[in-house]
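$ fold --in a.seq
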Amino acid sequence: MIRFIAWRTVQAAVVLALMSMAIYGLIGLMPGDPIDEMISADPRMTSADAQNLKTLYGLDRPLHERYLVWAEHALAGDFGYSRIHAKAVLDVILPRLANTVALMLSALAVALIVAIPLGVAAAHRAGGWLDRAINLGCFAGISVPTFWLALMLIVLFAVQLQWLPAGGVDAIGDGALVERVRHLVLPVATLTTVTIPIYTRHVRAAMMEILGLDFVQTARAKGAREARVIWRHALPNALMPVVTLLALELGGLFSGALVTETIFSYPGMGKLIFDSIMGNDYNLALMALLFATFTTLAGNLAADIAYARLDPRVRYDRR
């Protein structure tokens, strides 16, 4: 296992290096640069001033030379400054990252708590009225557009009933935990509603396959209670596809949900990445996207380790 983890770590480092080159190159090939943005914002700036600024920031150099300079500083722990926010990149990313983790983890936890029992119940009563009702609800949830659902929740709970705030989180004090939770309710409800059907369908499909295997019939023949057969024997094996899905979703966990964050004015990573790319903020966009890449790779490694824990047949210490 240790050799496997070490090898995957080396692979992750190579992927991050290649992704940093690709992202830096794509952002650098976008029309305009930060100095052009400054010229459009300040008509008093002359062409000589613009040229001096490009020389100062190294924007007059070829793209590969600029990348090598950035990589050298990044390896030393200096990730540069954000032009839009006028702060160090990490000082901008870390608060937004905390907001996104709070939002996405809450939505993911609620979705799994609801989806796993629903999927198990639908598979156990396959073809019955409960299974049909759950499938109908899943198809309805998958079909609902996220932006429309978010707007309807705002209209109902924030405008009509005035029970919850419409969005935002910046005005909340550090100690006001209750207010922070109130601001999270509608975004979490939106993400949970569109996520539950996906996990429910995966759990149902996996459980229906597992319940037809021989070891489940053997456990029943030995007199094991039905609840033990379902939750102790069948469910751990059925969670393998769900673990894979969670690993793929981990990158989205740290890259945020752009539509939801925009509608609810929630300061998370999705809106930050979008604004940094549109504003040609090289350092900020690059580090934010590399965060998402790193978490995706970490999620895949965690999924491989979870496979070995869930299924004894999966071993990584053999050639």
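$ fold --in b.seq
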Amino acid sequence: METTIQSIIANLNDVLTNENFVGIGSTRKAFKYKQFVIKKYVHEIGYLQTKNEAAIYEILLTRDLAAHVAPILYVDKHLMIQPFYEQLPLCNNSSYDLDLQEEKRLTVDLKEVLSIINQELDGFDFRDGGNYGLDDKGNLILIDYGMTKTLYENKWVPLAEAGILPQIAFERCQSCGIEKEIRTYGKEDLDRRCVACGKE
């Protein structure tokens, strides 16, 4: 039986499970179900990012460039749904900075998309490999593109500095001992466990 957006929404308790968990950022938690990724907001900023993505996607549609970013299939105040794209392999269990000048999987059209989002739409954070997936030809596709400079500076930074939103550090997990991304909540947070070891 074909999975539809409606069936996912109707069965969220069976979809948003630990088994389907694929990643977490500071504002959204991602689950893979069949050919979809469901991003559940863990903070209001996650919803604002999603609204930005929806607006950016519509603009790219009008310029015939939307094929180079993950489409927005469904949005509400709690989650969003997109097609799932294979994530880039992690380096040492961590996402990494891409060299956009040397990156061979970056197409000419995606370079144009990045330029539009950056110069016209207040875009931000395009070097992070965690913001990209791979399409069926092995080329990069932008899967996370809603954090703008304004949203980052006015909302995200103050909350991160206050210890409300997590910052990502690359350290050895004190539980499993693997060097990977650790979420830290302000300078006073001494819990250096990774998400896999139970830290939210």
